[in-house]
Amino acid sequence: RSHSNLHIVDQGIPKEVRFDVHTGDFASWFTHDPEIKKPSVLYYHEKEFYPNGFKVTALFQNETPVRVHTEVKEKNYLSLTLDNKERGEMMLCMTPTLQSADGFFES
Length: 107
Prior knowledge:
It is built from 1 helix and 11 strands. It has one helix at residues 46-49, and strands spanning 6-8, 12-19, 26-32, 40-43, 54-60, 64-66, 68-74, 77-82, 88-96, 98-99, 105-106. The mean pLDDT is 85.
């Protein structure tokens, strides 16, 4: 059983990573460098934690939402590029999409 997501930050300097093995919630804090054009890569265990999909969000300086471009180029590897032109602290979160009792999906 995989117990974590691995975030390889190519768009900055990593600071902290947290992963909840019970909920699948993932968070990473890093210093974003807008000069780096190469995407960050996130390994995730789709079958174990994200069978119904996921939602990725990012905040700049813990308050300003940042658009995240995502692409799955290889199974369980998510490529991420941030729409942010400023250097500074960034928080990246990945949460599983949950299926409700009536069969509808919630994020």
